[in-house]
Design goal:
about 240 residues, seven-stranded mixed beta sheet, four-stranded antiparallel beta sheet, about 35% strand
């Protein structure tokens, strides 16, 4: 029997202290993995349905084959794994600013690490997603400057208004979204996870930049059967 609680790693970072915890829920006998930044929960394996839906819903609407996809934010890896389960995905680049998170996957401390690192289509890049998104020339892929993508899936901040770092705020404004859209192919998809209900003001910003945008609510139950709701924003560049 595993112990009720273990702290697997604990690291200082530029934006706070990052910790990886594993615990057993006595009620469900489920082993849970949690990532915290200081006292704030970033990710829990108790809640993964919306992170997986982020990839499934967005990629179902991405046109064509041999899809080239960026995931912003590695976390526990559920969005990346769901993207790799789409058979049309040819390459996946996961951009993660926090080096310990990448190391935890590569070192096998997280349960999806072996799956992600063994898939030849998947690469990790340690970098600031928002800084790369803001650069129209450099782009996300250090090996191919200016590369454009079929889909960009983002799960870093809690919502467009609830940010892990105030420096991210500009990304969610029209100019930041316009720069992001420049990294997408014609008909490309930008998808964003949010912990909050759909925000009409943010949707209006998306519609100023993209040819089409909408929000969806993802309803699911946690491992205890309690109802939970998250939001997905989906925005599409004009088809060529």
């Amino acid at each position: 029997m595993s112990p009720l609680f273990e702290e697997l790693d604990y690291r200082p970072t530029a934006i706070g202290t990052l910790s990886l915890r594993r615990r057993r829920d006595p009620a469900s006998d489920e082993t849970l993995y949690e990532i915290k930044l200081d006292d704030d929960f970033l990710m829990s394996s108790r809640f993964t349905a919306a992170e997986e839906a982020l990839a499934r819903v967005a990629l179902a609407e991405a046109p064509g084959r041999a899809l080239e996809v960026v995931v912003g934010g590695l976390g526990l890896g559920y969005t990346a794994r769901a993207a790799l389960e789409e058979p049309r995905v040819d390459s996946l680049l996961v951009v993660e600013a926090l080096a310990p998170v990448i190391e935890w996957h590569r070192d096998g401390l997280l349960p999806l690490g072996a799956t992600l690192t063994a898939d030849a289509r998947c690469r990790f890049r340690e970098a600031d997603f928002f800084a790369l998104a803001a650069d129209p020339d450099l782009g996300f892929d250090a090996e191919r400057r200016g590369r454009r993508w079929d889909a960009v899936l983002l799960d870093i901040d809690h919502s467009p208004d609830d940010l892990l770092d105030p420096a991210n705020a500009g990304f969610y404004q029209p100019e930041g979204l316009r720069r992001l859209a420049g990294h997408l192919k014609p008909g490309g998809v930008f998808a964003l996870w949010s912990n909050d209900p759909p925000d009409e003001a943010f949707l209006a910003r998306l519609r100023r930049v993209f040819a089409e945008a909408r929000a969806e609510v993802v309803d699911f139950a946690d491992s205890r059967g309690e109802p939970v709701a998250n939001s997905l924003y989906l925005a599409f560049t004009a088809r060529g």
